[in-house]
């Protein structure tokens, strides 16, 4: 790929594009919004596949269980959205994390991404939106590094560079995978969590005003979010960040309508939960701010659009 083409692929795309989504959908409530939002932009986003990503926290007994629960949640969301045909394009991902930066974790998702990406080119890339641990994407790149030139990776992961550490959930679950993806030849867009995407929060009254009673999927998204937030913040005032929507919104960010970003050198996350002081020569795109109200309005309008 020429440097000119590489830099072009770091820009928000124009026209209709092919997309795959890699998501740990059962981990939180925000992946569900991202999936639904993506489905509402059929004129712009042609969803080829959805991959279930591993995760491990209080909602799973381990990475494999998290991946399997995410697979089921993706299918549930698609059925609520009336996208039964797309259920056939949901694939299981990795059952564990990378042990190092050289050995991939075999999975249907990683194998499929390799196969799919080989049919694209730098001039017509496949957009890979990752909103969980980057294990599936890293594994595909380790299986066949040649796919890097044919894809653009958009990842919600890590915190802002000015933040005190990199202990963000997606990044710390599999730092090796994050390093493989960021160090690959693939054009890479990072949406940092705390310090940037943390601006994108909502509340129970706002969710109920805009979503309640509009359609089954909107009802599910609203009540699932309120129920989860009130479970761990009972008796407190709260807002909830809908993190993962922003990664999908990057694909719709023509003329910077939803967020600002810059092309920078790449700083890899270290195993000490800090960004390494020495940067790579590789350029990447780094999102610096989100227009919360404009994006939240578009999200609500799309989710309730008949």
Task: Please characterize this protein's 3D structure.
The chain has 306 residues and is an alpha/beta fold. The protein has a single domain (3-200, 242-290), classed as Inosine-uridine Nucleoside N-ribohydrolase, Chain A (Alpha-Beta Complex), CATH 3.90.245.10. Helix content is 36%, strand content 18%. The protein has eleven helices and ten strands. The chain has helices at residues 3-9, 30-39, 63-80, 108-117, 135-143, 169-173, 175-183, 204-211, 216-232, 245-250, 292-303; strands at 17-23, 45-52, 90-91, 126-130, 151-156, 188-191, 201-202, 240-241, 259-266, 280-290. The strands form two sheets. An eight-stranded mixed beta sheet has the order 3-2-1-4-5-6-10-9, with helices on both faces. The protein has a two-stranded antiparallel sheet with strand order 7-8. Helix 3 (63-80) links the parallel strand 2 (45-52) and strand 3. Helix 4 crosses helix 5 and helix 8 (204-211) runs antiparallel to helix 9. It is globular. The mean pLDDT is 96.
> What structural class do you assign from the helix and strand content?
alpha/beta
CATH class: Alpha Beta
> Would you give the CATH topology?
Inosine-uridine Nucleoside N-ribohydrolase, Chain A
User: What is the number of beta strands?
Assistant: 10
Enumerate the strands of the largest sheet in spatial order, edge to edge or round the barrel: 3-2-1-4-5-6-10-9
Number of helical stretches of at least 4 residues: 11
Radius of gyration: 18 Å
Shape-level CATH architecture = Alpha-Beta Complex
| 3D shape | globular
DSSP helix fraction: 25-40%
Low-confidence regions: none
